[in-house]
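Problem: given the chain below (543 residues), write out its structure.
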Amino acid sequence: MRKYAVIDLETTGPKYESGDRIFQFGCTLIDGDEVIEHVSLNINPEKSIPFEIQLLTGVTNADVATAPYFDEVAMTIFNLLEDRTLVAHNVGFDGPFIMSALKDALGLELEVPLIDTVQLAQICYPTALSYRLSDLTETLEIRHTQVHTAGSDARATAELFLKMKTKFRELSTITLKQLTEFSGELLGDTGTIFEEILEEKGKEEKQEFPLEQGFVVSPLAVKEVELKSSKRKTNALEAYQKLVDSGFLEDKASQREMITTIESLIETDEPLHFIEASPGSGKTYAYLLAAFEKASKRKPIWIVTSNLLLQQQLMEDSVAPIITELKIKTPVISIKGQRHYIDLTAFKRAIHKYQEERSARNSLSIMGLLVWITETQTGDLSECNQVLHQVTLWKEISVKDANEEGSLYWDKAVASVQQSPIVVTNHAFLIQYASLIAHRVKPVVLIDEVQQFEHALEQYGTTTVNFSHLFELQQLWSDHHLNAMFHFSKEEEHLSRTMNRKLLEICDLYETWFEELKSGQQLSSSFVFTSSEWKESIHCEMV
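Solution.
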């Protein structure tokens, strides 16, 4: 049975070697999975506690003035920690600090294994918004009455640690084995938790888990897409009145008018319409309520925001609250470009690669992703906390080709779009993946912030060329021509000279063009239209 000492320290500063000292020590002892004792000590640090730390902890100089000095309690602390695994939330700070203090006071080395609950939390809860102890305890409903006091923090960390161990035990042996491949890169002895749990579980699985490309995934991820819509329609104006009556929305005449206008435009045969709405007029809720009334599988509605951030905000801050408040059954699907979705085949290749090229950051990211794919239904990498976002790794494991089938999550996202009466996306996706629309009934498209749409078109249609390589190539060819001309046949010499001349012409053309750009004489292919002119120039089925 493994024994743990979960500790937390409150100190006058971050560096023991610079003279900072402990003024509170908290410790919770765990034998196996059972908490057996709590210890909380105030300690006189023999120096003033900085004012900002007093504000943070609520501990004043007066509170520790009559407390024992560290050397008076050092042996008690040493005996508590000896022969136990030391656990802390950021053990990279608490571990070395308490070891240095004990060595100075007693002349004894505390040599114990170290486990970090921050890294364990990053693996166990890959989608958490924050890994601060106070945020985790609030999210997980762990009792934590006195944040930033050592005793309360140690108790909360102990409960968090036990909760994470329980969750890790629920993972399959397949996932646990994959985790142990990278656990050696974690801080101290943190990775031994996975080896310990794997040994406990034994070799046989007690339940079946869905597998994709050798990874255990969520049962909901492999479930065939079947979106069911309620036959009962949501009357937009009645729904609006309910939201006003409940205090969810403020009653605005402009919002009511906009709902009616959008509904009528959706029904018209005219291909293109513009609505200009001033800030604060409530256009978002107006077009959402109209969409909920008019959308169907036969006549789907796409709501297109200008960027990913606004797309996410629309889903979280507007769509989800309306669905909850009005108990709407109409499915709403949010879709992004394919690079946002994990490709399990590519992830498998990356795991083999990084088993040979290990690093602490990539190992932590891979371990978090291994847990995440057992939970995610969408495979959208943006669900994960940014601490797991390693740019090179994520580029390697994301879906590359939108038209290539065989990627579990991307295929499911596309299938969901083709069944959903309401789709939320962004300008870039609409432009790049408009071909998806051709596979189904053409949707009504509500483009928000349409003034930004031209910029998205421009970005999509822009190709960047690096001309520096051209000059390097010309110089290399020229050198090669001079060095080899005595070995050329007449025909080879002529071809080489012609190639060199063409390269020089291209370089000269580039320099002329670049000078024109600098002097402002370049031609423009971008024009500013009035809404009526733009309407006349575009032929598509949009609202």
